[in-house]
Amino acid sequence: GGAGNGGFGAGAAGLGSNVLGSVGLASGFLFGGSAGLGGGTGLNPLQNGLVDADYFQSMAYFSSTSASAGFLLSSRTMLNIGGTAAFVRRPDSSYSDMNMAGANAMLSTQFSRRFSTFVGYNFNRIDFIHSLRNTYVQSGFLGIKYTLSPHDYLSLSAGDSYVDSKFASTVTLPTDVAALLGVTATTVVSSTSKMYPGGRLTYNHEFQRGGFDLSCESAISPGNDLILLARREGCTVSLSRMLTQRLSITGLAGLIRLNGVAQSGSRYDTVNGGLVFSYRLVRGLSLTAGANYRVTEIRPSTQSSSAVIANAGLFWSPQDGVHLF
């Protein structure tokens, strides 16, 4: 969790853990849980899925925690089950304030040292507490992981998301009806259900003192401070290098597009680029600081903006997991 001003701030990093035969805990946003199409591992303040695409330069407070457990069913097959919970609070009880809870399951099979497959299911409930209510997102997915070389890794997944949402809208009544009822407008509760295809591609390359990561995805997300419930599409690249035994630097760039689900026809694009420094204080605990440049554009209007934003925070990841058995 943390606080972000304009979508880039303290605690905006995401991390995940899926440790064989153990329980993993994560702080940072993993939409659909660590078994889902969205959410990754590693330090990337450009993507947290909650406030990373906010438009207004105002403080937003958010938190997300996920937990997962892995069970070895055979020498080649593993079952992961988990859950996640998150919330976002923006100034003045914003209509985009959100609560979310979900559960997930994934079954993976290792066919060889280089090739494995996985299939899974996610269920999430999202409540925009001052506007949309009772939004349910169910996702099924399948994918493959392939080791291209000792230093190159590729993962592909595809699936469908079923979105069931209820929302309220204000309808202006005809003059004669308004005269009879004594009111000029009424609130109508509507419901919508629709299927959305999605997918995720990740590529990782390891250097001797660093690495390169590419991630592209299409998935349903809570949206941002303008668009509630969105189809999120985007790509992020990062290049990292260890400068000393404790100090590392990461260059990040990303493009995110939000297409409105509840607000059909609305679109929000943001392009980010920046640097993050990380200094390891003790085992698993690091101090991070950096800055980025961001450009945003809103459609169908022609509004656009740009900003330079700084960030700082703490990042913790238990290197050996939390072993219970």
What does this 3D model show about the protein?
- The chain is an all-beta fold and 325 residues long.
- The chain has one helix at residues 175-181; strands spanning 2-5, 23-27, 59-72, 77-89, 98-110, 115-128, 133-149, 152-172, 185-206, 210-223, 228-242, 247-260, 267-282, 285-299, 304-316.
- Helices cover 2% and strands 65% of the residues.
- The chain has a 15-stranded antiparallel beta sheet that branches.
- The longest helix has 7 residues, at 175-181.
- It starts with a strand and ends in a 9-residue tail after the last strand.
Topology:
Blueprint: E1 2-5, E2 23-27, E3 59-72, E4 77-89, E5 98-110, E6 115-128, E7 133-149, E8 152-172, H1 175-181, E9 185-206, E10 210-223, E11 228-242, E12 247-260, E13 267-282, E14 285-299, E15 304-316
Antiparallel strand pairs: 1-3, 2-3, 3-4, 4-5, 5-6, 6-7, 7-8, 8-9, 9-10, 10-11, 11-12, 12-13, 13-14, 14-15
